[in-house]
């Protein structure tokens, strides 16, 4: 809940606007402001105060607890010009709230959290649990001091600034000693291993149970899969105890648990469900047949009889591959009764991340916020040079940019997938929608199921052009590319003919280039066999870019010489009309009778 507090009429109006914009998300606190702030602070996750920052600082100061639990606080000035993220920028979500408030009120969001203003990812926003000296390492990141990254598993991280160097000296098998271990080793006359960690600031990516030393942050990637077998009625405490003991004995951190895995028949087993809930991880289940096919070290007869597979814990943990770190072990019960749960622990192979991101037709405000987030989530960017230029300013410093020229599509697709397979967070970009005559299909044709793929839709040229022309796509429509570089002309012609016969509105992509000039007239002639010469045709060049232009003409009058590769051509159906200079395709002939 977001608590809203104000002292003046202008503030009260602001509260009302936020309450109206976010139904169900807000509560207005009336009465004396001091009391209102105190109540809201105790009851809400976030506060928006239409008060001076100084007043709010004085009011909340005695209420402050810690960063993790205090609400996020945003202040808005009397004139509604600024939404200031005052407290709980990351943890309390105040930075994001300031942006949202800014959008509703037309106010400028003011964010002063260091990592947000200089493009360095906050360690607490990387999406992994973390432990250690966050303040110290963040300060070092910002101050440009040397920070070593020790990645035991190559889990996909966003770009880190150039002062972060991958620690080559301690390749993936390294173990950071805890301080007592290091001292012990030194005392025993061994190598003083702590000295190896002389670089004071470190970022470690590991699932091993190690203590963060001074100046260290340990990021916990979701790398551990816990396979669980349980008899009917196994208590959650017994399951949890088993998991924690198994991890502790193996020197692994429970913060790296990705999921609990078991057999379908146990999907609703209350002890497993509750254990997962308390750990904050999902339960993933597999069919008995699939589990029975997994090669495991410790099969047994009991689960075979009960659920139809000789192994549940080991098989469910191993079924998607990985390294078995803890073979099957049973729970122990203080009352001496038989164990009711088994578990096995597997380190799953690191999965790289491939985001296929559509940048929209050109204008910055037609780039979706999600696309922006994915660009900032990536450490490697792959794309056509001219598209990279379009978004270079959005990338985090340190992002590795692999750009190439026109015609290198296959190479780009292969590079993007190969980088993701290496465990990187990759963004593969395309203009418009990256799945429309663009990079998504060649990339996914290369990719196997060992990487995660995320698609971000973009505004494709046909839609950008339609919005400029009016409403040409109001009824069934198709896009057809006239490029016969990779598609035989006969195939293209057959599709144009089918669209012509089916009376479908058609948008032509890649309509004409210097070397390809006869295809567009030919395609238009085919459509003209089934449509009047007066059928409206919209020609849009560089939609949403600086030199945008558009023209509304007809099938008979279109001059192909005015069309080039920066253009899309939209041909109406037999019902499309020009109305007040706009291209309009009716929703349907019986629309007025209310049949749609
Ligand atoms: N993935 C892109 C299409 C790539 S094919 C998308 O979804 O929009 C390239 C063709 O798209 C160009 O030849 C042109 O016909 C069209 N196109 C792309 N961007 C355009 C724009 N801003 N204005 C007009 N046409 C555009």
UniProtKB/TrEMBL annotation:
Domain CobE/GbiG C-terminal positions: 224-345
GO biological-process terms attached to the record: cobalamin biosynthetic process; methylation
Main enzyme class: transferase
Keywords linked to the UniProt accession: Cobalamin biosynthesis, Methyltransferase, S-adenosyl-L-methionine, Transferase
Superkingdom of source: Bacteria
Alphabetized Pfam families for the sequence: CbiG_C (PF01890), CbiG_N (PF11760), TP_methylase (PF00590)
SUPFAM superfamilies according to UniProt: CbiG N-terminal domain-like (SSF159672), CobE/GbiG C-terminal domain-like (SSF159664), Tetrapyrrole methylase (SSF53790)
Record InterPro entries: 4pyrrol_Mease, 4pyrrol_Methylase_sf, 4pyrrole_Mease_sub1, 4pyrrole_Mease_sub2, CbiG_N, Cbl_synth_CobJ/CibH_dom, CobE/GbiG_C, CobE/GbiG_C_sf
Alphabetized GO MF terms: methyltransferase activity
UniProt EC number: 2.1.1.-
Domain (Tetrapyrrole methylase) ranges: 354-559
UniProt cross-references to CDD domains, sorted A to Z: Precorrin_3B_C17_MT (cd11646)
Pathway in which the depicted protein is active: Cofactor biosynthesis; adenosylcobalamin biosynthesis
Annotated ranges, domain Cobalamin synthesis G N-terminal: 36-116
Protein name stated in the entry: Cobalt-precorrin-3B C(17)-methyltransferase
Origin species: Streptomyces jeddahensis
Gene name for this UniProt entry: cbiH
